[in-house]
Protein 1
Amino acid sequence: GEPHTAVLQRTTCPYCGVGCGVEIVSNDGGATLAVRGDAAHPANKGRLCSKGSALADSLTLPHRLTQPLKGDQPLSWDAALEEITARLKAVLADHGPEAVAFYGSGQLLTEDYYVLNKLGKGFIGTANVDTNSRLCMASTVAGHKQSFGADTVPGLYEDWEQADLVILVGSNTAWCHPVLFQRLLAARQSRGTKIVVLDPRQTSTTAEADLHLPLRSGSDIALFGGLLRAIADAGALNDAYLTAHTNGADTALAVAPDLPAVAAATGLSPVQIAAFYRLFIETPKVVTVFSQGVNQSSHGSTTVSAILNVHLATGRIGTPGCGPFSVTGQPNAMGGREVGGLANQLAAHMDFASADDRDRVRRFWGAPRLAEAPGLKAVDLFQALVDGKIKFLWILATNPLASLPDANLAREALAQCPTVILSDAICDTETARYAHFLLPAATWGEKDGTVTNSERRISRQRAFRAPLGDAKPDWWALAQIGRRLGYADAFAYDRSADIFREHAALSGFENQGRRDFDLSGAIGLSDTDYDALAPFCWPWKAGEAPGASRFFAEGGFFTPDRRARLVPTPMTATASSTSLAFPLVLNTGRVRDQWHTMGRTGFDPRLMAHLPRPTVALNPRDAATLGIAEGDLVQVTSATGAMLRLAEVTDKQPSGEVFASMHWNGAWCGGGAVGRVIAPHVDPLSGQPELKYTPVAVSRL
Ligand code: SF4
């Protein structure tokens, strides 16, 4: 008979922003756990990718942190929390709240994020609460807010299946959001969807494309600016939508480049570009999916605006099969955005810039020291550490020494900070070596809470086993500090449901349709309701049933005049350019079976078997010029630093560009971390670093 019959728990995959539902099942004896796709979850309808399918193999992680440590000395939670609180109080007394910072992660659950944000911004009084989401989708947040007045993803996953044209921009969707890609391919079978992929490289995604545009890295801004002009020239502007619901079309059009300028910037032929423009103009149902290739750029937020512009200009937004669509990397990057877990956000889609919002949040929390202005974004935060301005740093669920640009500077930053606390599930990361206190965090399968996927769908992550050793949920440790600072009532949470209800209440507090993010329908959830909560897309307004809905088909933007803004997007160069010394462009990204800095996937032999070595891919022509052969040990050098990799010579890589995966780091291969090579150039609006364009030289060792 069936070997796996009993469903023990239903939860959500911890890996990516697709947010697939999984079932934890046991065999007849109950001894062995297995994981399978949850057929009832709307995000994946039973599907899983290679990483999700392997989840059961990673339940026993090596190097688990099972008790608090000070240096390498174990201590009780009580002793650790007492000492951390004493150090925090001393820093506050001597240097003020700006000397305190938190650096979190899109891996945190929404409830962890909520308590982190509340403690930092409301009760300690520091807005230095940033996360690794800054490296992931901060430019989308900035772009959404500029155009829509709020960080709103207008559409739903089903739009991918209802579109006749899906444009994938800067995304190897087949590897990075595999289940969404499977859904798209299945829809294509039945409706003949056209797929256009914009990517300098040939990938598993471009292999499925009807049209692949191998544009130069960093030039997508020109391609979409030119598309706006082409739409206008073809008489395809949606004048009714523009007139009723937008401002700024003329200003945006005034700087839109013409076809020869787009061809010069992108390296594409005018024929290729015109074919793409024609397809867009002639296909009413279009979804434009964009991801890290757009975000991780020194002009990422403007490129996002260029993409939003063409959808606003054609009124193709918020209706079935239409809209711009950002896909997030991390499982809960969206939940973090909802909570306000970035240094330039306040809380629940409320802003520092608004005195009313600040007053609202202060009153709701009963906050004694609400931060009044945005704090330091990730790259600036680590620079402030180097400058000695931050004296107390608490890092949660991330490994910045492996993921931040200019890894050498980040190392110096941590080495200088008098108090570094790391909450993590594992203890052998590079960052852990610099932490004065290590706090054991409960991990996937052990903790309860919610996550939000890329279509605004909130799903429960449910525990199905006890935390290992003394591991605790992150919200618990943060709340303990809040209580020890004297705010027992504000942090009197007994379980994650308490926090979710408060989060829902804040989202609805004096909202009245002012803000897109509204969970007021969830305020009255009982503990049992919360445990049984079925996946739903926000908004969930009081008095209404939760249901999947789209935004902006009839306008209703969240700007003061309720109109969208078309933002001018002049062609913009990358922060640095190639030179005789650094003639190649380094692009970075993920590979199919690894996740982040390999803290979980790296321990699974099945997943490691896919691409087991840290490589740098380069075109055969470049390899021949440099005297490099397949498998050679090479040094990749930039103005910032150097790393070692093994050469992979492939004609899938365009000449003039090289590619290295982001996952490998010092814990796995001493010289392999890409962060050593990448300069900390950021988008001026979003603060997101340019991880996709670094001039480098490659030489054989
Ligand atoms: Fe998990 Fe993402 Fe794969 Fe779904 S697509 S199973 S969420 S890694």
Note: Residues 85 and 481 are 6 Å apart (CA to CA).
Protein 2
Amino acid sequence: TIGPVTDLTIANRVIAPDGFKRSATLAGGIFPGPLIKAQKNDNFSINVVNQLQDKDMPLSTSIHWHGIHQQKTNWADGTSFITQCPIPPNRSFLHQFSAPNQTGTFWYHSHFSTQYCDGLRGPLVIYDPDDPHKDLYDVDDESTILTISDWYHDPTTVLNKIIGPVTNNSTLINGLGRYPGGPLSPLAVINVEQGKRYRFRVLGLSCDPSYNLTIDGHIMTIIEADGVETIPETVDSLPVLAGQRYSVVVHANQPVANYWVRVLPNLGNQSFTGGLNQAILRYKGAPEEDPTSSPGPSVLSFNEAKLASLMNIPAPGVPGIGKADININLLAGNVNNLFTINNVSYHNPPMPVLLQMLSGAQHPSDLLPSGSVYELPPNKVVEISIPNTGAAPGGPHPMHLHGHKFAVVRVAGNSTPNFVNPIWRDTVSMGTTVGDNVTFRFVTDNAGPWFFHCHVDFHLNNGFAAVMAEARNQLPIVSESLPDTWASLCPTDNPYTAS
Ligand code: C2O
């Protein structure tokens, strides 16, 4: 565990989280990376130190703080080619930012190519010492972290050459797992004491699969989604897509024993035999052995339409689909294995979009990559709809917007909009059914270019992205805190000057 003021060293190390040895790209030398633990309204000062040297994988890096809004500090968002040039090896970059009033469960990961699939991902939690809703949950312990990730035996330099879907070798829970035919590598153990209630922070650190979480014999009460407190909602299974986070309350009210925690992926190996895709929930006093529990019937199914913000924050703007100040349809497609949004496949521009904007590119059409940048004026309500026409394979696609949480006014699987008390989050499923039309709203109150993309990292790498270039006339606010080191990450012979 590290604090909000820290060095974060990125280095290569050989690890075997599922019993198979490979060189990985890691934060702090471990997988997942160290928990960054902050308190509400802490200032962050994280110095990312690039010590990468394994030439079989990318040597540059940049680190994104997923879910942190970077209000006034777009430059610190850590997104290669959108908000900064990548950090070359043997260089470092200091991210100084605050997260006013943001609390809950977040994560950090590489935002350079598909580097986080090589290991560069870790949890970030902002605790609220005086959580006003503690009585609602009645939690005895909120220290449990449950990260879910896919794992690959090949480096992404190999995986990225695969045409079509990439399949993970194993699933890791808290960085431990097994692969079919592999050794009986240790599994993650989550310790509980009978009678107590726990807040489990569930993090979808996946590169690709969506996972469905169940705990044999136990139900879960959702109290947070993506850093937003929810009206408590009890389920017995929880879909966790790449990039999504939940807090759930688990009451250890069963007989003292071991229970399987199961995370069923939507692709790849879906077996639970021999500990695959599982961790152990161990009651104090239970023997140190594998559980023999079986999964219960799913009764309390998850329904995103039921998730509502505890704050009861209505969606901004005039209620009614298409009645925002700015209404944008983003049509996802796929041509020759490249994903498209409104017929354009995203590719990295030669220089970061923020640098282009600061340098004074006058027209949205000047901004590169052309066709992928949507310019948004300040202080407007923007509504984005992502109709599912079935033209983008490999769903459910988790669609993520940087710089904001958004009000999901129409969720997948339910066409009735909710403008009254929608869930606000930062990563939402596009759904799997043709006819789904996920729609969300946010206000353009945060200047800078924000990446919007599918959080399946291989899909992002194949162009499933766009850039929301927001409130250009307020960029001087961002320049105020821009450190000199920022521009020095870019080659000096580039045609732009930040002014
Ligand atoms: Cu989790 Cu573009 O990020």
Note: The radius of gyration is 22 Å.
